[in-house]
């Protein structure tokens, strides 16, 4: 699977320009996070924008939240210089900027659930419309596609936010997702997708030292919303370019499966599923005695495996694709069933 945009005959000059723009996008995003993170952390502390531990927290020390703001700014800078921007570039920038702003307001002041959901629906609707409005379909089909895109964007942004509960987990998944989507975009000769994916990966690498081992700052809603929006838009773009769904879903499958599984379990038990909780599968791993770093490494490794299995839809025919799909479902089933295995072993996470 190539991670580059291949030029056609006589397009060497254009290819060089595209490559330069990709490099500038990646450097701009990574540099902004590297330079801006220290003063951002200091400012958050000065403003007392702190995540105070509670009964549902996975942390014991008050920690600044909102450290993902430089990531949002970096992604916007990358989108401004990336090649082949067009409608996708505008949709990407709008998604990152709008959801990042909503998240920042929520980090700083808090937003009622109804207001937050209404804003997310409005922003997701605008982004989805930008993505699908030029499709050569009937007006009815385009409207349906826009509605489906709205549900996907708002849903995944929230799912990504729900899963940001232990040190490093979301930055690690942003790294895996960014590299994977850049490779898939390169396969479809999409310069913007390559630049945006690698920029996201660079931002994650720059942020991880602040959060992976000892959390000196959290992404906050601004960070998780921005990253979730970036991944959601890139996923839609890749599917529109004809990339097999299994390959596109690889980087996000574990997050989606955990959120969906936990949600249905809470609904069946009659719990107030809109309230904060700590019963996601990865959180139950922590309750079973796993450290944050072990949870992040294992979930990240499983996501890499899901990405590799999904790639069978790109490089292999049906003979390879079907077994790979079944193997991917098996990986998710083992992950979701792991708390039951802990329960049989007498560990706390299986409760």
Task: Explain the overall architecture.
This protein has helices at 12-46, 69-81, 86-108, 113-132, 139-162, 169-187, 191-207, 220-240, 245-249, 253-268, 281-287, 292-310, 312-315, 318-344, and strands at 50-51, 63-64. It starts with 11 loop residues before the first helix and ends in a 7-residue tail after the last helix. The model is unreliable at 4-11 (pLDDT under 50). Helix content is 71%, strand content 1%. It contains 14 helices and two strands; from the N terminus they run H-E-E-H-H-H-H-H-H-H-H-H-H-H-H-H. With 351 residues, the chain is an all-alpha fold. The radius of gyration is 20 Å and the shape is globular.
Alpha carbon gyration radius: 20 Å
* Number of helical stretches of at least 4 residues: 14
* Biggest β-sheet: strands ordered side by side in the sheet: 1-2
Q: How helix-rich are the residues, as a percent range?
A: over 70%
Helix- and strand-based class?
mainly alpha
Low-confidence stretches: 4-11
How many E-type strands? 2
Determine the N-to-C terminus distance. Answer: 42 Å
Elements, N to C (H/E): HEEHHHHHHHHHHHHH
Nearest-integer average pLDDT: 90
Q: How can the largest sheet be summarized? A: 2 strands, antiparallel
Shape: globular
């Amino acid at each position: 699977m190539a991670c580059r945009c291949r030029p056609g005959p006589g397009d060497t000059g254009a290819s060089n320009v595209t490559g330069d723009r990709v490099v500038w996008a990646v450097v701009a995003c990574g540099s902004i996070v590297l330079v801006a993170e220290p003063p951002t952390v200091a400012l958050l502390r000065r403003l007392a924008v702190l995540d105070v531990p509670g009964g549902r927290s996975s942390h014991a020390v008050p920690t600044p939240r909102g450290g993902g703001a430089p990531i949002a700014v970096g992604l916007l800078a990358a989108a401004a210089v990336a090649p082949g921007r067009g409608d996708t570039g505008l949709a990407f920038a709008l998604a990152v900027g709008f959801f990042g702003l909503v998240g920042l307001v929520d980090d700083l002041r808090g937003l009622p659930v109804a207001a937050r959901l209404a804003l997310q629906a409005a922003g997701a609707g605008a982004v989805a419309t930008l993505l699908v409005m030029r499709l050569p379909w009937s007006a009815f089909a385009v409207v349906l596609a826009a509605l489906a895109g709205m549900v996907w964007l708002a849903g995944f942004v929230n799912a990504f936010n729900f899963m940001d509960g232990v040190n490093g987990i979301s930055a690690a998944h942003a790294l895996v997702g960014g590299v994977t989507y850049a490779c898939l975009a390169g396969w479809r000769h999409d310069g913007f997708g390559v630049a945006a994916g690698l920029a996201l990966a660079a931002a994650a690498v720059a942020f991880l030292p602040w959060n992976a081992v000892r959390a000196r700052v959290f992404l906050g809603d601004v960070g998780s919303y921005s990253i979730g929006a970036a991944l959601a838009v890139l996923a839609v773009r890749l599917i529109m370019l004809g990339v097999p769904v299994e390959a596109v879903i690889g980087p996000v499958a574990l997050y989606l499966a955990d959120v969906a599984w936990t949600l249905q379990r809470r609904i069946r038990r009659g719990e107030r599923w809109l309230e904060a909780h700590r019963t996601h599968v990865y959180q139950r791993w922590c309750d079973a005695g796993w450290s944050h770093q072990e949870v992040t490494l294992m979930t990240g490794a499983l996501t890499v495996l899901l990405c590799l299995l999904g790639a069978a839809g790109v490089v292999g025919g049906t003979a390879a694709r079907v077994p790979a799909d079944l193997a991917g479902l098996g990986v998710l089933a083992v992950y979701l069933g792991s708390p039951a295995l802990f329960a049989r072993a007498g560990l706390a996470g299986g409760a």
